[in-house]
Amino acid sequence: MDERVMGRSGQRASVVGLGTWQLGADWGDVDDKEALSVLETAAESGVTFFDTADVYGDGRSEEIIGTFLSGRPDLHVLVATKMGRRVEQIPGNYVLDNFRAWNDRSRRNLGVDRLDLVQLHCPPTPVYSSDEVFDALDTLVAEERIAAYGVSVETCAEALTAIARPNVASVQIILNPFRMKPLYEVLPAAREAGVGIIARVPLASGLLSGKYTKDTVFAADDHRTYNRHGEAFDQGETFSGVDFAQGVEAAAEFAALAPEGWTPAQLALRWIIEQPGVTTVIPGARNPEQARANAAAGKLPPLPEETVTAIRELYDRRIKDQVEHRW
At the N or C end, where does the chain have fewer CB atoms within 10 A? Predict the structure, then answer.
């Protein structure tokens, strides 16, 4: 699979990575054996980038990745984790002492001396404008606790503020055919600054897989149930902020645009990969079959121009007015 440079860090990541939120929590149960099988299948399929966070399963996702990689010293995988969501979300918690403590915990979970890439995990908006915060991150690099750092953001405005910081290696942002606003300013600014873009929620929490109907019911411990209206965290993380019923209708139209032999999910992933400035896209996978199918999108041919145009028309007609004013 093709790899791209992760911005200023010089690190390389496969164009399709693996998001591992589902291996920790918030998507229902995934046992350890199945989780390890997902990681193994992704790696065998050419994935060289895993994205995790210290809050996913309160460290379980990190631990599973650490266990997997300790048994596969032959693999080169860039592992990005995140920090900051295990405490009250106030700017005053984003200080060097806390960073060191969070960093120590993630290094233990992952079984490494130095973390490849650490991202602030959608912190309060003022954090992105704090010189002290980014000085502290620079200190972690100087202490060789981390090789590079980036940010994960909710809004395009937060992304642009972070991109202006001289040592930010990457920005992780929601980008998919139902969330196109980052194409306007964020991706061009990232390209100009040499900042990597990690595209998350690429399937709009599964909407773009085309598998759901208006009657689909998710488990009580699945964020697609308990965070549908932003009850637990930012609503944009669930179905990209799109109303579920309307999203199902739009997703059916989207699925009809898939070229012969492609799944709707592969169409969505391929569309993201082809956006100038994207470094990697990080779909999740609950089983090896999903991991293999997602990775295959990194090896598909370019989309026909008429398909690209149809995807944009669908977004403008069905989705744009729901999401662009918020994120």
Answer: N
| Residues in Cβ contact with 267 at an 8 Å cutoff, skipping those fewer than 6 apart | 208, 254, 255, 257, 258, 259, 303, 307
CA distance to 6, 20, 62, 192, 241, per residue, from 47 (Å): 14, 13, 17, 26, 28
Beta bridge mates, 151: 120, 171
Residue ranges in the chain assigned as alpha helix (H): 32-44, 60-70, 96-110, 131-142, 156-163, 186-193, 223-226, 244-255, 264-273, 288-296, 305-314, 320-323
> At a CB cut-off of 8 Å and minimum separation 6, what does 44 contact?
none
Answer yes or no: are the C-beta atoms of 119 and 49 closer than 8 Å.
no
The C-alpha angle 218, 84, 7, rounded to 5 degrees, equals 95
- Predicted confidence at residue 73, as pLDDT, reads 93
pTM assigned to the model: 0.97
pLDDT tens digits for 78-125? Answer: 999 999 999 999 999 999 999 999 999 999 999 999 999 999 999 999
Q: Which two tokens stand for residue 304?
A: 């026909």
Write out the DSSP string of 267-314.
HHHHHHHTSTT--EE--B-SSHHHHHHHHHGGGSPPPPHHHHHHHHHH
